[in-house]
Write a structure and sequence with these properties.
The complex is a heterodimer of chains A (202) and B (321). In chain A, strand 9 and strand 10 form a beta hairpin. Chain A has 4 helices and 12 strands, in the order βαβαβαβαββββββββ. A 5-stranded parallel β-sheet of chain A has the order 3-2-1-4-5, sandwiched between helices. Chain A folds into 2 domains: 109 residues, Rossmann fold, CATH 3.40.50.80; 60 residues, no CATH class. Chain A is an alpha/beta fold and 202 residues long. Chain B has 321 residues and is an alpha/beta fold. Chain B has 7 helices and 17 strands. In chain B, strands 1, 2, 3, 4, 5, 6 and 7 form a 7-stranded antiparallel β-sheet that branches. In chain B, strand 11, helix 5 and strand 12 form a beta-alpha-beta unit. The chains are: A alpha/beta (202), B alpha/beta (321). At the A-B interface, loops of A face loops of B. The complex binds FE2/S2 (inorganic) cluster.
Chain lengths: 202, 321
């Protein structure tokens, strides 16, 4: 299962849709892991789109499974990279060279979409004009509200901050500017009184 | 009720003929105080007392938003209109006392934009004059494409082109110069916002082309004041008191309500802001919806009307006032 229906939550929590082709002079697609499936579906639904597409793809743990299939779509440009930080300069360059009419499509995990969205907004695209589709892991990018450190790919609640070691409760409160959910100390009142950690959405 | 419609007593301190069709008016507070601040794109509603008729027409403010001494507007003479512009052209003289509303902005710059691309047609230039003053004072990046009938009728075109030669492009209809919109839109850097003010045909053309070229709706801004149109007289009943008010041929329903002493809400008086939205309790007949506010569904379901520009034809109309 690569699609997950997030339960309704507070207004701060991002919601995701389904990618659809929109008219535009250029198309920038950023995906990680199973997010590739959303791009494959998009390409199947909109023949000709890939000829004008720049695809930035991070396979993460999926190895060559999707990378091969994306290659066969022959996008105008295809970059396959090891991590978001490795791909970020390329994304920034693509945005700074772009003109109005560019369409942005993001797919995959929340952490990837959130960070790419932050760059796109920074480049001047209104948030509502950026398409997203969640696929794959429900892992989150979390910011510790105490030490401000970011812990990537958090899949359990509570979890231990990778920076300061506090036990953090996973909140739905999201910061677009940080591209991260907020983690708040769960045992501040009674240090050590930490409920057993369980998988997110389990 | 009439939120945002606080009034200012002013004196006309200058009237200048800009060209054959356009006159400029300057208003200062009669009590010698300062005018309220505004942001580029704002309009004021001018009250015109013409015999026993009172007209309230919105005009974009064109003066420098930082200048607290006066408000300035430009009015194009419209021979076919309901008389507001003719009143301004023929009756208003230096020294006259008038009443203006506080400014309201329904066409503001989005200051998150990396660049502001402006398209103006004819008298649609006026909101841009204030916006350009605002942007040039704050170092904002802008480009104006201004379409005029002839050089002689191109209000402020010469001044603008002289002052901002790199930013201002003027197109003359009589020389068959047209804005190459498709190319212009495709060449804009990411983060550009588009603004259009001019005749309806131009606004529609710009919005349609921008949509086709992949511009997000959030980055496309337009302002079109509809002048209320004349039509067959009709009657409207107020649900609260059962009072029946007649809307005359050359009156809007909002004007008729006001003339009858009903404090009905409004801001733009041009079908754009939504402030005057009124619930219809009952009706027998059909609506002539002319606003930009109600959705198509709302227009067909017959439960709402925008009295500033829309009319009614038929047997009876009861509104929730
Ligand atoms: S007053 Fe603005 S829509 Fe009627």
């Amino acid at each position: 299962m690569t699609r997950f229906q997030f339960p309704k939550s507070i207004a701060s929590r991002p919601v995701y849709g389904r990618l659809t082709a929109r008219p535009g002079s250029a198309h920038l697609m950023v995906a990680d892991a199973e997010g590739a499936e959303a791009l494959l579906d998009l390409a199947a639904a909109a023949p000709g789109l890939m000829e004008r597409a720049h695809v930035i793809y991070l396979p993460k743990t999926t190895g060559a499974t999707y990378a091969r299939r994306l290659e066969t779509l022959s996008p105008a440009q295809l970059y396959i990279g090891p991590s978001y930080p490795a791909a970020e300069p390329r994304l920034r360059k693509a945005l700074s060279d772009a003109h109005m009419g560019l369409q942005v499509y993001l797919a995959g995990t929340e952490g990837l979409m959130g960070q790419a969205m932050r760059e796109a907004i920074e480049a001047g695209i209104p948030a509502g004009a950026i398409q997203t589709e969640h696929r794959g892991s429900v892992a989150r990018r979390m910011q510790c509200v105490h030490c401000k450190g970011i812990t990537e790919d958090v899949t359990t609640d509570p979890f231990v901050c990778a920076h300061c070691g506090l036990n953090l409760f996973v909140r739905d409160h999201y910061s677009r500017r940080m591209a991260a959910f907020q983690g708040v100390c769960i045992d501040a009142e009674d240090p050590g009184d930490v409920p057993p950690s369980k998988e997110l959405y389990s | 009720m009439s939120a945002g419609t606080r009034k200012i007593d002013v004196t006309v301190t200058d009237v200048v003929e800009v060209n054959e069709l356009v006159k400029r008016f300057r208003f200062e507070r009669s009590d010698g105080g300062e005018m309220p601040t505004f942001s580029g794109g704002a309009h004021t509603v001018v009250e015109m007392r013409d015999g026993d008729v009172t007209r309230l027409n919105p005009y974009s403010l064109m003066s420098d938003p930082r200048d607290r001494r006066a408000f300035t507007i430009s009015v194009r003479r419209d021979e076919a209109g309901r008389g507001g512009s003719l009143y301004m052209h023929r009756q208003v003289r230096i020294g006259d006392r008038m009443v203006l509303s506080y400014p309201v902005n329904l066409f503001a710059l989005d200051l998150r934009a990396k660049k502001h691309l402006m398209i103006a047609g004819g008298i649609g230039i006026t909101p841009f004059l204030a916006q350009i003053k605002q942007l040039s004072a704050t170092g904002g990046r802008f480009e104006l494409h201004y379409s005029v009938r002839t050089a002689a009728l191109g209000s402020y075109a010469g001044e603008l082109a002289g002052r901002f030669p790199a930013n201002v492009h003027v197109y003359h209809d009589d020389q068959s110069q047209v804005i190459d919109l498709a190319r212009l839109l495709d060449g804009q850097p990411l983060g550009t916002h588009l603004y259009v003010c001019g005749p309806k045909g131009m606004i529609d053309w710009v919005i349609r082309t921008a949509t086709d070229h992949g511009w997000p709706a959030e980055a496309v801004h337009y302002e079109e004041f509809l002048a209320p149109q004349s039509g067959k007289p009709f009657e409207v009943t107020l649900a609260s008191t059962g009072r029946v008010i007649t809307v005359g041929e050359h009156q809007s329903m909002l004007e008729a309500l006001e003339a009858a002493g009903v404090d009905a809400p409004y801001l733009c008086r041009g079908g754009a802001c939504g402030q005057c939205e009124t619930d219809v309790v009952r009706h027998e007949g059909h609506f002539i919806h002319r606003d930009h506010w109600l959705t198509d569904d709302q227009k067909t379901c017959g439960k709402k009307i925008m009295p500033c520009v829309s009319r009614f034809e038929g047997k009876s109309l009861v509104i929730d006032r």
